[in-house]
Amino acid sequence: MARAIERIERDIEALKEAIRAIAIELQNAYASYLNTLGLAVRKQLILASYHLCTQGYPENFLHLSLNQRQQLQQAIRKSGQVAAEQLLACIKSDEAGLDKEEVEEEDKEVASSELLDTSNSQPLTTDTSNPIELAKWQQNLEEVTQEILKKVSHDANLLLQKSGVLPKKLPEPILAAAAAAASEASAEAMPGPPNLLNLVIEIENEQQSEDSGLTQIMAINLRLGEIEFADVALSSERRQIRSILVQLNKLGREYQKKHRERAIAEAEAAWRASWFE
Predict the structure, then answer these.
(1) Which of 139, 99, 114, 128 is nearest to 21 (CA)?
(2) Fewer beta carbons under 10 A from the terminal one: N or C of the chain?
(3) What is the mean pLDDT of residues 113-142?
(4) What is the pLDDT of residue 45?
(5) What is the mean pLDDT of residues 22-32?
């Protein structure tokens, strides 16, 4: 029985080593993906702003002076640059953690890394030999990415509204609610140009509360699916990530199976050790 437990322990250690290798591969894939995504976000933000200014609200855009248009365009480019830097920052903080782990692994110590938890913005310790923790890290990274896209969309809409392109009568909560509604249907194809929200909403008249009118609004709403669809390199890197996750899931199932086998073997040994006639 002791030999059986030792064999299971060796199998678990081999699985941990394989999972640690997958963790490094997954992080490298995400580092490349987020770098490419940052470039794509900058491009798609400019394209969405172009469509909104020239097709959504051309009259409002024409009312701006040359200087105002240039300032708006510069601010939009800056917003895209900030988003790209934030995307890279997501993975760079974790790279330091994995580098530290490689050093500690040489010393045969347990390694960990810190990453941002979007639910409470608190550090989350990740054991990269544990597939469950690694899956949580990956899910958290995806959530952070979505939050960054929401933030840059929101900031761009505020810029467009302050400049006078988007109607000022649209309160910010309405834009936020519309974007949230669109996010819930993110898996569905949106009509019209990509990364734009095009809705008809009902707004009450401030002077006559009983009266209301239908207003069509167009706003920027960067969506990950549409950004990936428009970028061949980004789509390819997403497929690579999915392939790595398939390997991780397979190792994860084997990891849990071996832990179950070890628990059973240890319980059987404990039963025999305590049993007496």
Answers:
(1) 128
(2) C
(3) 66
(4) 97
(5) 95
Name the phi and psi angles at 204, rounded to 5.
-75, 145
Nearest Cα residue to 46 out of 203, 200, 194: 194
CA dist 78 and 243 (Å) reads 34
Q: What is the DSSP letter of 207?
A: S
* Residue 114 neighbours by CB under 8 Å, 6+ apart: 93, 94, 97, 123, 124, 125, 126
Q: Specify the number of domains making up the chain.
A: 1
pLDDT in tens, 146-163: 999 999 999 999 999 999
Residues 6+ apart with CB under 8 A from 93: 114, 115, 116
User: Is 36 inside a domain boundary?
Assistant: yes
pLDDT at 40 over 90: yes
Q: Is residue 57 included in any domain, yes or no? A: yes
CA separation for the pair 79, 67 (Å, rounded): 18
> Has residue 148 been placed in a domain?
yes
CA 154 to chain centroid, in Å, comes to 16
**Domain carrying residue 118:** 2-170+232-274
Note whether residue 204 is domain-resident: no
- Lowest-confidence pick of 64-68, 74-78, 236-240, 267-271: 267-271
User: Above pLDDT 70, what percent of the chain?
Assistant: 76
Which tokens is 58 given?
């051309």
196-206 burial string, b = 16+ CB within 10 Å, else e?
A: bbbeebeeeee
- Asked if pLDDT for residue 205 goes beyond 90, the answer is no
**b/e burial code for range 218-247 (CB count within 10 A of at least 16 → b):** bbbbbbbebbbeebeebeebbebbeebbee
Instruction: Give the model's pLDDT for residue 197.
Output: 87
